[in-house]
Amino acid sequence: MMAGLYDRMGSIPTAQLRRIAHIWCVVAGTLFLAYLARQLRQGMTDGAGHPFGEDFLNFWSGAHLAVTGQAGIIYDLAAFHAFEIGIAGAPIDLYHYSYPPVMWLISAPFGLLPYPLAWAAWQLLGWGAFALAVRRLAVWQLAPAQWLLVALAVPAVFINAMGGQNGCWTAAIIGWGLILLRERPAMAGMILALFVVKPQLGWLTPLALLAGRQYWALAAFIGTALALILITLPLFGIDAWIAYVQQGSLLKSVILEYGDGTWHRMLSIFVLVRHVGAPIPLAYAAQAIASLTVALLVLRVWHREGPTARAKALLVLGVLAGSLYVSDYDCVMALLAALWLGPQATAGLRGRMVLLLAMPLFAAPLALMSGVALGALALWPALLGASLQRAPYLAGDGLR
Length: 400
Fold this sequence. Notes:
Oligomer: single chain
Shape: globular
Transmembrane segments: 20-37, 102-125, 137-158, 188-209, 215-242, 282-302, 314-341, 353-380
Helix content: 55-70%
Largest sheet: none
Main location: membrane
Number of strands: 0
Structural class: mainly alpha
GO molecular function, one term: hexosyltransferase activity
Membrane topology: Multi-pass membrane protein
Keywords: Cell membrane, Membrane, Transferase, Transmembrane, Transmembrane helix
């Protein structure tokens, strides 16, 4: 029955999908503008604790405090919250900074801009970098004008924009890193090393590079990641890293293990198991099994095929399915996996990818209604389908 559903989803005519995409873009754009207007009811908030730009307030505040010599405030929950209230101009819920000091370096240009302008730049530049990666991959599969529609219509892009999050940026990082892997391996490794700011999503990448014998890229990855970390030491001191580790431990307990208002947005096996009432040790054990399974599936293909289109798609899907902390907005990168799999995918696999691409719209509402974070279950059919499909990917990826 499920296989039949996947087959039907994978056989939806292209013209029908294009009409759906156009309608969705209009609906999503209208909802987004209404949402922004609502967030200006009281100062730069909605009057109910949510600031304009949502989580982008964290990114901007951290960058601004770092470039103005106030980095000591960033990991002080009370002081950081007070600073953000001052920016928002009204009371807001507790927003926290959960990124390492390397993020201060990378996001510093945004901290130099006024907050509204920085928000607009964050949204447009992040989506633009992602959209150009889509254009590069879609050139062999779509008419010239369609890549823009595809990059706009992915539901996770809407979810990411609503939350002011970094899903487009991380999709651009893994997208361009893998696109450039064959022709410019050192540059690819340097780009992929930017995952040092989100290590929960970056852990699988160096293993894949090693399994695929991409040694120049791996060396550039390691060297760039170490350089970024070392640069922060004279700028911010070792105390910044100690504070980051301490806050990370606290947030892991509050947000990940006990789900303080976040479980419905999350897609990991750990959260799924915790959501059904299992104890923390059992949830960690389940996540360890899931992550190990993902690693074996991904590394097997990278070792056999090298960086083919399927291997790249599997790495993207593995990053999502195998991570301990992964959210609906991170699924922006799933479109890249769909494009790499492309026309060589079976109808069933295309159906699984359609389900995965649509999932961010429904995962959180379903979790709130059912009490169980079921979004993780949409990741695994695509991962398993791509890893087990017998397709002629060995000759090369066909896409750059």
